[in-house]
């Protein structure tokens, strides 16, 4: 289910995201997530930066920690994969109108970036993916993922999406025994969404020669 709130963590200090990774490594974190979140948000002043109340912050952070935990658990299998695909969200494009020159192929289904804006986050992610040897898809929605994977024999997947879609995709990927790594959006919405490009690059280069 989509969040009933909007968030923008793009200005949150990097220490916050480092803390999420540390939380994911700790055992039984789900039992004390609310207490830890309160301490973390107070220490880093996240409530002012993120513009969220404590209940919303707790919900969001619990989901993000779950995603980090899944990445940790799947990392070894993912590192052994050879043929990999990168799935990007079309909502992170700089423009969502005719100024974006990306073409859409409904038979795939995917957008294809034509590098029209150097500062476009999707354009930058596509360049990274190509450099690391990934097949790249820019999806209009999470429902396109099964259609593509059922036609292509990938053995490793990297997905960039909102945390809700990542969690939904986990069950499908598990049913196909496909190891995956995920990068969550740090700003949600239907347009101008954002993700951490540095985090994506670190994942894309896992065991890439």
> Judging from the principal axes of the Cα atoms, what is the shape?
globular
Number of helices: 8
Helical fraction equals 40-55%
**Main sheet specs:** 5 strands, mixed
Topology:
Layout: H1 14-25, H2 33-44, H3 46-50, H4 54-79, E1 84-89, E2 103-105, E3 110-112, H5 121-131, E4 135-139, H6 144-151, E5 156-161, H7 163-175, E6 180-187, E7 194-195, H8 197-204
Parallel strand pairs: 1-4, 1-5, 5-6
Antiparallel strand pairs: 2-3, 6-7
Helix pairs in contact: 1-4, 2-4, 4-7, 5-8
Describe the structure in your own words.
The chain is α/β, with parallel strands linked by helices and 209 residues long. It has one domain (14-204). Helices cover 45% and strands 16% of the residues. The chain is built from eight helices and seven strands; from the N terminus they run ααααβββαβαβαββα. Strands 4-1-5-6-7 form a five-stranded mixed sheet, with helices on both faces. A two-stranded antiparallel ribbon has the order 2-3. Helix 7 (163-175) links the parallel strand 5 (156-161) and strand 6 (180-187). The longest helix has 26 residues, at 54-79. The radius of gyration is 17 Å and the shape is globular. The mean pLDDT is 88.
